[in-house]
Design a protein that fits this description.
This protein is an all-alpha fold and 196 residues long. Helix content is 86%, strand content 0%. Keywords: Membrane, Plasmid, Transmembrane, Transmembrane helix.
Length: 196
């Protein structure tokens, strides 16, 4: 076998392994990708609005100690949010490019979407310590008609943390599925269709 035959055989093998995505399939892919991009933009602006509102509320809190605690807590939340949104922004840029043209590039896109799903759920779970701190601040600074016993404080704290974590988890799952998961499922179905 000479070199030209070997090159031809190699090229044929590569072509068989990475089929092209047809124009019709690319059009099917563009709609869910555009929906994901749109939802990412909307979520980004909502988060900016929430943080601006939170810092404005902090500026009117009194006494100073409460204002300081809440400001530090929100600034810490902002740092965590910036970290995760930098990951989401990378995905946003990747899916802003034209739709993938080959099976392998579509497979890579699905892998990136699944990785970002894990980032997204981690983002919600990362707010658990902030929830605990918020509850501690509320328990410390809210004036109660009569002082709370240690048992009441423990019950309120543990109950709030368990309930809050459960709500965070449910909210994260619901939000992700509603705004991203169903479109990711559509893309994964297209990948399965191409596999056949």
């Amino acid at each position: 076998m000479n070199i030209d035959e070997l090159k031809n055989t190699w090229n044929e093998d590569i072509m068989e392994e990475t089929p092209e995505i047809s124009i019709e399939q690319r059009n099917k892919l563009n709609l869910p990708l555009e929906k994901i991009r749109k939802n990412m933009r909307v979520e980004f602006w909502w988060v900016i609005g929430i943080f601006v509102f939170a810092f404005l509320v902090c500026s009117v809190c009194r006494p100073f100690k409460l204002q300081l605690y809440i400001t530090v807590l929100i600034a810490s939340m902002l740092i965590v949010t910036v970290f995760f949104f930098s990951k989401f922004f990378k995905l946003y840029n990747d899916i802003s490019n034209p739709a993938p043209k080959t099976y392998d590039s579509l497979k890579d896109l699905v892998m990136q979407l699944n990785l970002n799903k894990q980032y997204y759920l981690s983002y919600y779970i990362s707010f658990a310590p902030f929830l605990v701190c918020e509850i501690l601040i509320v328990l410390e600074f809210i004036p109660w008609p009569k002082p709370l016993s240690e048992l009441k404080i423990a019950v309120i704290l543990i109950g709030s943390v368990i309930g809050g974590l459960f709500l965070l988890y449910l909210a994260g799952k619901f939000w992700f599925h509603r705004y991203y998961g169903r479109y990711m499922q559509h893309i994964e179905n297209l990948l399965e269709e191409l596999k056949r």
